[in-house]
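Input chain follows. Return structure tokens only.
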Amino acid sequence: MSARERPATGPRRIWPVLLLVLACAAVLLIALPEDDREGDAACRPRTVASWAADDRATGEFARYGDDATRTDDWTGGDGTHSVRLPDGRLLWLFSDTFLGQVHAPPNPAGQPHTWRDTNTPMIRNSAVVMSRSGELRRTLAAPLFPDPAPQQWRWPVAARVEPRSPGADEQVVRVLLWNRMASQGPWIYGVPVATEVATLALPDLRVESIVKVSDQQSVGDPGKRVLYGTTTVDDEDWTYVFGGTDAQAASRPSSHAYVARVPHGGLAEADAWEYWDGEEWGADVTPRPVLGDGKRKGVGSAFTVVRDDGTYVLFTMAAGTEGLTTVTSYWSCSPTGPWHGPAKAFEAPLPKDGAPQQETAAYNPQAHPALGGDGRLVLSYDVNWLNATPANAQANISRNVSLYRPRFVSLRLAAAR
């Protein structure tokens, strides 16, 4: 081979390659907003490419709740969260819950729906165990988390399996709890009090302890109190715990989202929590919201976050009247933002019978990674009566028990165009 035929090995060969690499890097930087250039290299804008009702998951809760042979198990609830246990079982956690007997149709109003007595007591939380094969098997003794004081209660939110302490081999279940207190309107569903963490032993799911990790009683305006735990996401050595405020007044159609982080195994240690103050993490900082302008951008009081490769995707009910039926999404390269959106994701299917659609609303979208797979993401959402007092809502959903149970959809995410 002559010198003229040999591959170039000197600077003339290296410079074109280097220029090509720099050009590719520039394209990647241009593709992301300015504030995202420090994010994960795999981060890309994400959106919902398709969705469909998940009748199998919805139907399993209908089967279990409609079983009239049981007299003390779950028949309906909201605030749906789940966590996969090490032995393959799935633990489902609910906030306000109905237990007891249900009756075959027709109901006293003559409508063809399974119903419960209108005086059936409601408890503040419950837990249901699903087998590895996906069959709901039993309701744990309820309420699982006792009331902390008169006129106060606990709503379970996100849960996860983690080491008993950082670096430990033994695993436990940690459940984040919202401590709320009874109040008058507009706080008919309770005033935020504190975030707590319960520790459950494995495998028997016995409650070992409940500790307070964030006390909000010193914040005078209940609308500015932050409760953490609506959703959690793992990333390297940290568990990111998202929370939010309650938007009650019409002038505040959407709430603000906040984020904290805790080392794996440290959820039950208040001193291990760090909060984002807009610039850095710290234990003694003033938390600042990562999403929400009080108008078009923001979250409902409950929302969910998942990680798709290097991108964080947040699902919440849309702001304003559109949020009565529409789940929207945001994306970010970091838990702290910036969060881009909102983008219309899907319209949650509401019941077609038993209640006029204009009188029902969807809320509390939550991801359930244990139910997904093959590129599918499964989300649940709850359904209840709109603009009703708790007493009126209880009467309405007792006439048709299917109105107060989780419903599920299956999503596929794709790169946003």
